[in-house]
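[Meeting: bench + compute handoff]

Bench side (C.D.) handed over the final construct sequence. Compute side (W.E.) agreed to return the predicted structure before the next meeting so the bench team could plan truncations. Sequence as handed over:
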Amino acid sequence: MLSDLIIQLKTMLNVYLQEVDKLAGGDSMVEAVLVATTATFLSFMVIGLNRLAKFTYESIKRKYVTKVTLNSNDYYEKDAYISISEYLQSKSSQWGTRTYFISSVWDETINKSVLRLTLGYGIHFMYIERKFMLVNIMERTEGTSAYNTMTIQYFGMSKKPIENLMCKVTKRKDVDKTQIFEFTNGEWAVSNEIKIQGLDSIALNPETVTEIRTMMDEFVNGEDDCRHLGIAHKLTVILHGCPGSGKTSLIRAIAKEYGFNLCLMSTTLSNLAASMSKIPANSMLVLEDFDSLSGTKARKGVKSSSEQLKNASKENENEQSTEQSTIADLWSDFADGDLSTFLNKLDGIVPLDGIPLFMTTNVIDKIDKAIVREGRTDFMLELPILRPETVKNHFVSKYSDLEVLYPNIEYPSLVGCMVYDIKKKSMMDTHRVAQYLDELHSEQSIPKLKVS
């Protein structure tokens, strides 16, 4: 068959040369020019066709080919990368895949490392989700670090096959685990992973739970409304209460309930601007004991906007001197950059869209009024002492036989740290729980429980 094609090409070439010879009239120079012109025309035609084909291919690829790229080195993509690679390997065939990796991954179900077979470098052809997919795995280098990228592409404009693939194989992070980030060496890094429970796992007065859930639900679901109204989609909350009232436990429970990671901020203002500008996605900022920041202390002579309105009529005579004093006080504090940097963050000059900020303090009265004014702090939530009925409901929910064994028990008022301490010391021993509650009840001058 190939020989027949060669014969046909030779025949066509001979016919072409005969026609050129006739046109040239035997003049070799003219014949050479005609051959060169024909060759040039054919070359340009081939180049043009090649470019046209390339342009057509790129146009079709841009418009009709869907692709997704995953990075094995990215914190938020590596789980998806490993899961999809394992899944694709299980669906691979000998004609579409010839290279593999053996990887060691941590299996949380058995708490040990296991070996897994995943796709290797190169191009792999697969039929998945009723689509022919092309999977390309490449090695990349960035500085001294090396990582892999996986590109999945297929013909079609719908993203449904990719979404279906992600839903099937992406391992959802353990819902009981919250990532803890700390700001070190100019960037956020995971420092710990803790397993916590939601709001129902900690002792809170019912009205506190209602207020927190209402606040968080409005924030989580309110992005579109904020955009429509032209206001920042932010949430700044100050939690205050006596030491041990459960502020930290509450923050962790909120993070679990609403699926946020925790970013623990330093109370050193030198790193404040950088840390609040590089926040990991899906995170909640936490600034504990923020009253220790030098710029947050209450300043003399500075009043809140509401106080200024109330006292305006009484201060008309001294308005000019008071204004000059206030400006001088403001400038003296702003000059070192502490308070101005802090307030700029709260006002959203550096965007914190979609990122809730929780600050805690034991001494709310010492906080500068410029920080807690309307529009800057969205909620100020006090964690009061837990009422006896709250303490009862919490312990009964954890120890189902408590009411059966001790039906006449009187419950004391407690703070959050005391509830935690009782559970930690008693573990699953209901009798010890009753004993500790009885002792605390006695310390509050309530008749001692008679245990028969």
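W.E. noted at the follow-up: The chain has four domains: 2-55, 64-169, 178-312+320-382, 388-443. C.D. will use this when planning the next construct.
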